[in-house]
Amino acid sequence: MAEAEDTRRAGRIVVRKGLEGQTEDRRLLERQPAAVDPYEADPWRVLRIQAEFVEGFDALAHVGPAVTVFGSARVKPDDPMYDAARRIAGGLARAGFAVITGGGPGIMEAANRGAREGGGLSVGCNIELPFEQDMNAYVDLGIEFRYFFVRKMMFVKYAEAFIIFPGGFGTLDELFESLTLIQTGKIVHFPVVLFGSTYWKGLLDWIRDPVLKEAKISPDDLDLMIVTDDVDEAVQAARLYFERKSLGAPPKKRARPRKSDAQ
After folding, report:
1. Can you give the residue ranges of every domain in the chain?
2. What is the pLDDT of residues 187-213, one digit of tens each?
């Protein structure tokens, strides 16, 4: 699905590399002087955002049950986590799930590769960045986004579970956003699986002390995450949740959300 090596995508537009400008996200998030060109004004930008939502919803509406996999773009094929992501995605595909990733290299590539090898649908939601991130070669259904928040909506809306591998700020952003949405009752409590207990240990220790110890979260908030090193357990978490949901069972009970949960 990668474009020619001398081109890059900006949303649906393909441009020659070297013609680098601000990304659409940066234009939106920075205060700009009064626009001379009406097509650069924020009211017009809202229509582009709306169009991107429509395109994403249209592309993903019929993918069926899916699991979103996150993790570092810097992981190489000889890394054990690459192999684990590939195996988990294969297991998810054989269990009837599509696999959604950010469409890039590393863990994303491994998961898309495993999904294709497992006979499932391999979905990539790529993002326009100041530096190039090509869609990996294992994506069957690829969507290019200008705006991070539109892309993040797609990751959440069409997922029955999140499986989160070791990663950097982007991975942590997706982790904490999903936990916040569950904690505040914005979405149903679906499985959030942290794969690689050694990697996540420091973060979880910090969440317990000082975050929990100082009552910044509730004790049951720790139950929002499943930590495992077992490929089958990660697949099983998604499968069991979806089976329960399909049978019409009520979602896991949560305490009534409080305003303080989002602060």
Report:
1. 7-262
2. 988 999 999 999 999 999 999 999 999
Distance CA 117, CA 39 (A): 44
- What is the tally of helices (H) and strands (E) in the chain? 8, 9
**Chain centre to alpha carbon of residue 236:** 19
CA dist 181 and 79 (Å) reads 31
Higher pLDDT, 116 or 14: 116
Q: State both tokens at 72.
A: 């570092």
Cα separation, 37 vs 56, whole angstroms: 27
Task: Report pLDDT for 33.
Answer: 65
CATH class of 7-262: alpha beta
pLDDT of residue 103: 97
Specify the amino acid at residue 4: A
DSSP codes of every residue in 66-122: EEEEE--TT--TTSHHHHHHHHHHHHHHHTT-EEEE-SSSTHHHHHHHHHHHTTS-E
Whole-prediction pTM value?
0.83
Mean pLDDT, the chain, rounded, equals 88
pLDDT value at 79 more than 90: yes
SS3 of residue 4 by DSSP: coil
pLDDT of residue 29: 65
Buried b (16+ CB within 10 A) or exposed e, 43-73: eebeebbeebbebbeebbeebebbbbbbbbb
* Closest by Cα among 107, 135, 106 to 123: 135
